[in-house]
Design brief:
Layout (H helix, E strand, L loop, with lengths): L1 H18 L7 H21 L28 H16 L3 H28 L3 H4 L12
Helix pairs in contact: 1-4, 2-3, 3-4
């Protein structure tokens, strides 16, 4: 139930980020948005088919990915969402977008902790294997 609520909150905030303002973005905002899409695509390819899911709960038979972008970031898809959200919120700001970006960031941090708890329960070596790998922002967190 908690996983479903987190996913619902995440997708609702993404919808507001996308629909809560105009799309006349400056070049640098388009650059951040494009970087977010590249990170998202790289993460999907690096993760592999059996691991890919929109829910934070690990799929049956999943494996821990440590290849591609997962060597540097534990949750690159969440980082991609935040990159795209920052791009539209700063590039074409609106009150709705600022609120949605804040909500999205809080939801994703909670989702990171929830997902890591589930991964640790399924893969007890997860914390050890993830040492030195940032959660969302390389060299920061």
């Amino acid at each position: 139930m908690r996983s479903a609520l987190l996913v619902l909150a995440q997708f609702a905030s993404i919808a507001v980020l996308l629909l809560g303002g105009g799309w006349q973005l400056p070049w640098w905002a388009w650059g951040f948005f494009a970087l977010g899409l590249v990170v998202l695509a790289w993460a999907a390819v690096s993760l592999g088919g059996n691991n890919l899911t929109y829910m934070p709960d690990p799929r049956q038979g999943n494996t821990l990915s440590q290849r591609g972008i997962y060597r540097f970031i534990r949750h690159p898809m969440y980082a991609a969402v935040l990159l795209c959200g920052v791009a539209v919120s700063f590039g074409a700001p609106s009150t709705w977008r600022w609120v949605a970006l804040g909500v999205c960031a809080v939801v994703l941090v909670i989702k990171v902790h929830h997902e890591e708890m589930l991964l640790t329960a399924k893969h007890p070596d997860y914390p050890q294997r993830m040492k030195g790998v940032a959660r969302l922002v390389p060299f920061i967190w």
